């Protein structure tokens, strides 16, 4: 076998699996009602693709090939298990006919969203169902999911196992919830969609700063939710937030993939049509009742996008919005972002004082933006030795090479400061 062809086929499998994994699992779970089985046969289908595609070529419809292979493997497994005999009789008829899965109740047009809502069942703890959905349906690795929730990977792995066990032991059905159940489950679904976007906006590991495929998939899912639930202001807020942030994607890295800070970005490269769409949705999100988490964050993002340059940004208004956001979500990450905004409004000493109040916060351990923010403010204050130590801490924690390279530049500037710095 030609090694180059084998490598190309392997890359094709990886690309297809990344694009199709959520759809594949969602379809398998809906058909067989067993998440563990769906994961296992999906993995076996990928192994088959790696074995067959280098010799036979990548099929014209690779997603359909994977689905057919996985479904056959699932049927074979069920056939060997007598406890599934009754279910297999029905499934085999559907498989022989090539019948598609029955249409979802409630009109959700994407099987992944259907399963997102299923995993958001109230019997499953919020932290557990979010972990399960991100790992199994969004395709994030356990460390990536752990990063999203600021917990160790081992803790996250336990949450995922616990959620699966709850679904199995409580016999929670894999079905679309009724209209009366959707509002209760919606916050969990929004959290998962936003976590997918966050991993796309700032990858937790690798050589690239952004994973645009994940960010765009999250936006696509949010658009579906907005069409289905146009009266839900937080859905509008989430979509607005992601659009306003994603609008800067082209300017966030240089030609060599290096990180470009907001202050240095070429704002002409921002997607202004996306900004306009997002800004209109902000008005929807903030009209008709108390503001929600996503609506407030979207308003902050809109203020950044509307400014012609960093110096003209309305920092007093951004700080005020962070106060509102902190009242809704008094988390250390919100406090960190608020401190950074205060530093822009009142100077680095004021921001650093707020950051120092967060020292020892367990949820910020291992979260590199915290030491990175301290390093920047310490450097601006001329406290170069302390800044260098903070930069080293942030470099050790940063997950992607563009982030590490940016922090190394800050470290170099702290170790060899200019006389006028």
Automatic annotation (TrEMBL):
GO terms assigned for molecular function: DNA binding; sigma factor activity
Keyword Transcription: yes
Name by which UniProt lists this protein: RNA polymerase subunit sigma-24
GO biological process, one term: DNA-templated transcription initiation
UniProt keyword Repressor, yes or no: no
DUF6596 domain segment(s): 185-282
Name of a matching Pfam family: Sigma70_r2
Family of the protein in this entry: Belongs to the sigma-70 factor family. ECF subfamily.
Segments forming domain RNA polymerase sigma-70 region: 17-82
Keywords (A to Z) from UniProt: Sigma factor, Transcription, Transcription regulation
RNA polymerase sigma factor 70 region 4 type domain ranges (all copies): 126-167
């Amino acid at each position: 076998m030609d090694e180059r062809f084998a490598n190309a086929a392997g890359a094709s499998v990886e690309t297809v699996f990344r694009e199709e994994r959520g759809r594949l699992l969602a379809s398998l779970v809906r058909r067989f009602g067993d998440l563990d089985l769906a994961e296992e046969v999906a993995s076996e289908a990928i192994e088959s693709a790696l074995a067959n595609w280098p010799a036979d070529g990548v099929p014209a419809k690779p997603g359909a090939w994977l689905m057919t292979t996985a479904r056959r493997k699932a049927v074979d497994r069920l056939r060997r298990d007598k406890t599934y005999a009754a279910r297999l009789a029905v499934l085999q008829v559907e498989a022989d006919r090539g019948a598609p899965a029955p249409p979802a109740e409630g009109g959700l047009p994407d099987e992944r969203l259907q399963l997102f809502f299923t995993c958001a069942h109230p019997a499953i703890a919020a932290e557990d169902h979010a972990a399960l959905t991100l790992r199994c349906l969004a395709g994030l690795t356990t460390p990536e999911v752990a990063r999203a929730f600021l917990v160790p990977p081992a803790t996250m792995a336990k949450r995922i196992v616990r959620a699966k066990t709850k679904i199995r032991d409580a016999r929670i059905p894999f079905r679309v919830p009724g209209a009366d159940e959707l509002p209760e489950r919606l916050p969990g679904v929004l959290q998962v969609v936003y976590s997918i976007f966050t991993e796309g906006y700032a990858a937790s590991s690798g050589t690239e700063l952004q994973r645009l495929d994940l960010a765009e998939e999250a936006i696509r899912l949010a658009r579906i939710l907005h069409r289905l639930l146009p009266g839900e202001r937080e859905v509008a807020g989430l979509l607005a937030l992601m659009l306003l942030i994603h609008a800067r994607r082209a300017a966030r890295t240089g030609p060599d993939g290096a990180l470009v800070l907001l202050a240095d970005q070429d704002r002409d490269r921002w997607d202004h049509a996306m900004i306009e769409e997002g800004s209109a949705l902000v008005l929807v999100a903030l009209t008709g009742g108390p503001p929600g988490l996503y609506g407030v964050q979207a308003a902050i993002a809109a203020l950044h996008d509307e400014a012609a340059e960093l110096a003209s940004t309305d920092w007093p208004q951004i700080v005020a919005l962070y106060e509102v956001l902190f009242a809704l979500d008094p988390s250390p990450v919100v406090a960190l972002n608020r401190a950074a905004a205060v530093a822009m409004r009142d100077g680095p000493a004021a921001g650093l004082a707020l950051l120092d109040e967060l020292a020892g916060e367990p949820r910020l351990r291992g979260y590199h933006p915290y030491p990175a923010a301290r390093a920047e403010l310490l450097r601006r204050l001329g406290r170069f030795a302390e800044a260098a130590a903070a930069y080293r801490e942030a470099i050790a924690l940063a997950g992607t090479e563009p982030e590490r390279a940016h922090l190394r530049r800050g470290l170099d500037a702290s170790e060899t400061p200019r006389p006028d710095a």
